[in-house]
Specification:
The chain is of the alpha+beta class. It has two domains: 3-115, 2-Layer Sandwich (Alpha-Beta Plaits), CATH 3.30.70; 134-198, no CATH class. 21% of the residues lie in helices and 36% in strands. It contains four helices and 15 strands. A hairpin with a 4-residue loop joins strand 3 (48-55) and strand 4. The longest helix is centred in the first third of the chain and has 13 residues, at 3-15.
Length: 199
């Protein structure tokens, strides 16, 4: 049996069973494409991430959702019978392909991404903080003060930070959007709106 014949057999087998594929969507239509594919009975995976931002002018924190991979979603289907239907689904631009056919995404990659999804349903990001992380406060009256994350208040978007300074040491409950890592510089302490400090 020739090598070419073996390759043809393996590619035929791959097309005749459901596999994960990356689907390139129209701009800002990831959710529309995902919903329409589900209406066809196609299983989809549309990972999202939640970002926190702090407005230095209004002094308020806001959070917003965005897609982990803008304009890409994942769909699990049998390319032999569903490829044409998927490609012409509203919201879809095309199924990602290399050569003459669609390129499957390895299950391990999908499982790895899914393992990073939190209980809230969002992928973990650099905004996630772990106990012991060194951080610097990036805005407010505590700006540039350094500390170490003591714990994450899971029921809200706040952290308990153990402040470290030559003249002051205490704990601070502060909005996550006001904190960044890694820490770089030192400054003295005042008072901060949106933060509660105690010694």
């Amino acid at each position: 049996m020739s090598v070419n014949h073996v390759n043809e057999l393996s590619s035929t087998t791959a097309i005749n069973k459901p596999l994960w594929y990356a689907v390139y969507t129209n701009a800002k239509e990831e959710d529309r494409a995902g919903n329409n594919l589900q209406a066809w009975g196609v299983k989809t995976f549309v990972p999202r991430i939640r970002e926190l931002r702090f407005n230095e002018y209004s002094r308020k924190q806001s959070s917003f959702l965005k897609h982990l991979f803008p304009r890409y979603i994942f769909a699990w289907f049998d390319a032999g019978s569903f490829l044409h239907k998927v490609n012409f689904t509203r919201g879809v631009c095309k199924v990602v392909s290399f050569g003459n056919g669609p390129s499957p995404v390895d299950d391990i990659l999908i499982d790895t991404i899914k393992s990073q999804i939190s209980s809230e349903g969002f992928a973990r990001s650099d905004n996630d903080f772990n106990c012991g992380d060194s951080v610097t406060i990036k805005a407010g009256a505590f700006e540039k003060l350094q500390g170490t994350v003591e714990r994450d208040l899971m029921d809200c978007d706040r952290l308990v930070i153990l402040l470290s300074s030559v003249s002051y040491q205490g704990r601070l409950i502060i909005e996550k959007a006001l904190v960044r890592k890694p820490a770089r510089s030192h400054v003295s302490v005042n008072a901060s709106p949106g933060a509660t400090a105690w010694v």
